[in-house]
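User: What would this chain look like folded?
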Amino acid sequence: MLADLGTAIVVFVVTNVDDILLLVALFGGALAARAVVAGQFIGIAVLTAVSVGAAYAATTVPARWIDWLGLLPIGLGVWMLVQLWRKRGRAHADPDDDLAAENKFEAKLHSQVLGVAAITIANGGDNLSVYIPLFANDVSAITLYIGVFTVLTALWCWLGHALVKNPVGGAVMERWGHILLPFVLIAIGVQIRL
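Assistant: Here's the prediction, encoded as structure tokens.
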């Protein structure tokens, strides 16, 4: 069991090291922190569930399907760049519109959660390629892997948020995060497609 615990930790860290950069960009962007956390948990849960299902079915996910997932972050990144371009010339909103803006934000929260989940899934090709054979090799350890992945997902979210909230990193991300995020998403999408 100790060996499985160590394996679970190493596998999660290796397959999700790129998620730290993604989480920093997401937390530093215009997304709500709770949407980022919820989306990350949903994305990791979906990747794990697909891997468990594939392991039990003793099949693999065709690589060509995973490659097409790269279009999702590319499309989202391009959409965000267009939104930034449109906002650059607009004047700031009237303070009386704060309530309307808050209601609009709450409506977007659900789509933000789904967007973060989709990006996490699209960025998870390496997760699937490692999790499926690992789970198929020892289905008795799947419960342990799921527990470790859940704890480490929380740690990853905390670490990404802490990096954005530290005085130096936070100042940079507050000023530039919303601009960097679309480029990070496009880069991730291109990486997935290659």
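The radius of gyration is 18 Å. If you want, I can go into more detail on any region.
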